[in-house]
Amino acid sequence: MTAEPMDTAGPLPAEALLLDEEDTSAGADLKGKVREAWQDLARAFAAVLPQLAPGTVLDVTLDPTASGTGDAVYEVRLTAGESGELTAVAVSNAALPDGYRLDRTAIGALVALGWSPPGVVEGSGDYFGLRLPASDANRLAVIVSRTLRDVYGAPHPAFLTYTATDHDGAAVHVPPLGAARLLAAGDADEEGDEAATERALARFGDKTVELPLADQVAAVVATLLKTTPDALTVDPDGDIGIRAGSAMVFVRVRDNPPLVDVFSPVLTEIEPSQQLYTKLSELTNRMPIGRLYCANDTVWASVPVFGRDFQPTHLMLAVQVMTGLADELDDRLHGEFGGKRFFGEGDKAVIKGIDGERTGMYL
To answer: For the chain, first and last CA: distance in Å?
Structure first.
């Protein structure tokens, strides 16, 4: 968890300020889509913060259920002042349990980003504090984004939740903050990720009944695609198909053990070689989640999601990442190693499943 000091003197857009040395060197590789998601979040912050009415409180939290941080809640609170200033506070070790406290490097990164130690900014109490005029919204947007990403360790903005409230705790409408998930006022402390589960599953009627994993998965995918579960493309094996440019992404539910596999046959009829295996290994090491491998003359990309204690946020992230990457990877690898893309122009895709299983034909 490290961060370099930022030069924010110029009028650069928030997303440009968010690009650090590691990000720009990533180019078009597999980290690119995650980097773009963080840029979207920074842009959203920069647009929203100057528009907040005085007294509005915007809480942004790394979802402890989705991120596996247990009782540790990593959060940033932004408050619009009566005089046009923006005050932000960020959680410190005083509010974190043993095993989840920030080390010296992380604390140094917070200071380098511009945070003042707890208690220095009036009203910050045990939290790190920062106060800036609304005209510095770009700078604050980057500081908050990098705090959540680089210091608190959020792997993707989809792992973030947020609420916006007024003086009386009533919900305040704010435009979407990238891939972060809006919680209804009061949900953050009580419902956590269950709120998203209920909203995604509401179309199934009685929410008190525990639905089968396959139905939960269908509800989440349908929500992402802005359709209904009945309208999803499902092959005879029960795999949900999602077209992503020249690639096809499948969502498969496995029962034993409970698992949701989000995968794509990136290239078929490929000729395996040591150069290919080396390339797939290098790309996998640079992926934020998931893996790439070659089996049965097919290059596969896969992101597994645990089915036990199923969390919609995990599946949303997996689908968002896979649909972006598969379309990018098939062209990239096709140009270097040949083979056939699922929806490649002039290609007649021959799809082979893992261990001979059928993945469905959509051509």
So the answer is: 46
Residue type, 67: S
pLDDT digits over 245-300, tens only? 888 899 999 988 889 999 999 999 999 999 999 999 988 887 767 889 999 899 99
Angle, helices 32-48/137-146, rounded to nearest 10 degrees: 140
Q: What element of type H or E holds 164? A: strand 160-165
Smallest CA-to-CA distance from 176 within 324, 54, 58, 299 is with: 58
DSSP character at residue 337 = H
d(CA 78, CA 85): 10
DSSP lists the bridge partners of residue 340 as: 268
Peptide bond into 257 cis (omega under 30): yes
Choose among 324, 305, 259: nearest CA to 66: 305
The DSSP 8-state label assigned to residue 27 in this structure reads T
In angstroms, the Cα distances linking 174 to 42, 115, 197, 209, 318 are: 15, 25, 22, 32, 26
Q: Which amino acid would we find at residue 214? A: A
Q: Using CA atoms, how far apart are residues 20 and 23, in angstroms rounded to an integer?
A: 5
Helices and strands counted in the chain (H then E): 11, 12
**pTM of the predicted protein model:** 0.55
Kindly give, in sequence order, each residue whose CB lies less than 8 Å from that of residue 285, ignoring residues fewer than 6 positions away: none
